[in-house]
Prior knowledge:
single chain, 154 residues, globular
Amino acid sequence: MESFVFVTDSQFEAEQTLLRYDTGTDSWFRFGRSEFYKEIAAGWDGHLYALRFSDSATVDKYDPMTLQIVGSVTLARLFDAIAAASDGRVYGLAGAPSSIYRFSPTGALEGSVDEGGIFAFDLDLSSDGRIAIGTRSIGWGVTTTALAPVTFFP
């Protein structure tokens, strides 16, 4: 995605709460709908996925070059973190204890895996299909896009 870094802005008075930082020009640009977002994730399909703060079940999809919204999907429940695969599937991390859910590009639930009673806060997806889960207490967990049982590492 060129020389850009994308983040959310927690200033609630801002009209647009997504920010693009251009490392080449050392400049910031505010974009997005007039929504507050709790997370933004770079999808392996080349799009940005922004999880709304207001309902935490709706994910807006953006083109990272034009910064225009290219779609939205509403998932079956509220989420704390998201990731997106190259085929447009969305993965969501929810709850305490936490579970990981897999959704089709249209938002249909395809499966889930329970984390085993751990409170997790972060979800990251590698290009080879591994999913990393960050916890507050025991370290990191790893599963796959097939939603295999989670293995934890202290």
